[in-house]
């Protein structure tokens, strides 16, 4: 910790500006603010996290201070999604997003907007008219336009990066995802979203964001879309790889090919929602109520009271492997954001199965840095 000169302490204290103890505390906070993941990787990429309202409502809480110390980018986990932001048409709930953007600005962070158009967490009114009949294509496109102009316009110059369209590519690699957006408006809704966002803030970085980025079919489709958009002047500025990975998936060779493919198109990649699921894979049990089934619960949720050291070591190794890859592509990767800060708040405790105890992040349930955190800092000390 760098020292604040004794003379400065006593002068300020003598001047009665602050008490000595307060000054010491301030010096400590200033020094701590200089260290953390964001500093270790400052020459490589931004280091971000996702936060929700209660994390930043009170900037003096240990969690808010931890976020400010470790990260230089923040994304709202839910606050800007269409459903939470605008549960009733034309009545956006700005209080939370306003506070989040102000928190980011106060700490000199890059604020990321998430997400303008997504098939999930949509408000009830979005796809229907007053008679509860499906809306027309024109009306849906108009609603998309109004949302984007209002939201991007409000934070113009303050939200530097937008996840413009989220998860619009099909799981089965056949093209665009089937969703009410696609069914009503056709694939045009995706490019309209980029165009309007660009008009609303010409300086903002506009991303397409999705998961399973290692999947070769999705990679091919995405590259085709990027080429088509570039040819026709649709403003896409980068690709978000969500990065919801596990201890054993995805196949790193395929993941690397996807990084190379985006780099070859001349676009930056943002790792937007990184976390490492350590629990047994539960693909077949999505939505299962494991709490009522003892055997299933023991098998799928084995570490309710703590992570065994050997699994923690594998988590550390996995994070290091990921960051080694990110460092190798540091010319392409603009940002690495985890999806949440500490294990207790991770969505992975409830997905794909509800009510498990997962350990996917870099800080534990008591906000202490895990071994993976030191492991990442050590990558830079070599
Ligand atoms: C998740 C949030 O973390 C949860 O709190 C919420 O209940 C559901 O959504 N991909 C995304 C994120 O793009 O918005 C999702 O966030 C996780 C998957």
Instruction: Please mark out the parts with pLDDT under 50 across 5 or more consecutive residues, or reply none.
Output: 1-15
How many individual domains? 1
Bound molecules: (3S,4R)-3-hydroxy-2-oxopiperidin-4-yl beta-D-xylopyranoside
- The tally of strands reads 9
Query: What summary fits the major beta sheet?
Result: 8 strands, parallel, barrel
CATH class: Alpha Beta
- Would you identify the CATH architecture? Alpha-Beta Barrel
Strand order of the largest sheet: 1-2-3-4-5-6-8-9
How much is the radius of gyration in Å?
22 Å
CATH homologous superfamily - what is it?
Glycosidases
Helix content: 40-55%
Order of helices and strands: HHHEHHEHHEHEHHEHEEHEHHEH
Count of separate DSSP helical elements: 15
Structural class: alpha/beta
- Which band does the percent of strand residues land in? 5-15%
At CATH level 3, the topology is TIM Barrel
The termini sit apart by 21 Å
What does this structure look like?
42% of the residues lie in helices and 14% in strands. It is built from 15 helices and 9 strands. It is of the alpha/beta class and 382 residues long. Strands 1-2-3-4-5-6-8-9 form an 8-stranded parallel β-barrel, surrounded by 5 helices. The structure holds (3S,4R)-3-hydroxy-2-oxopiperidin-4-yl beta-D-xylopyranoside. (3S,4R)-3-hydroxy-2-oxopiperidin-4-yl beta-D-xylopyranoside (XIL) binds at residues 77-78, 166, 242, 273, 347.
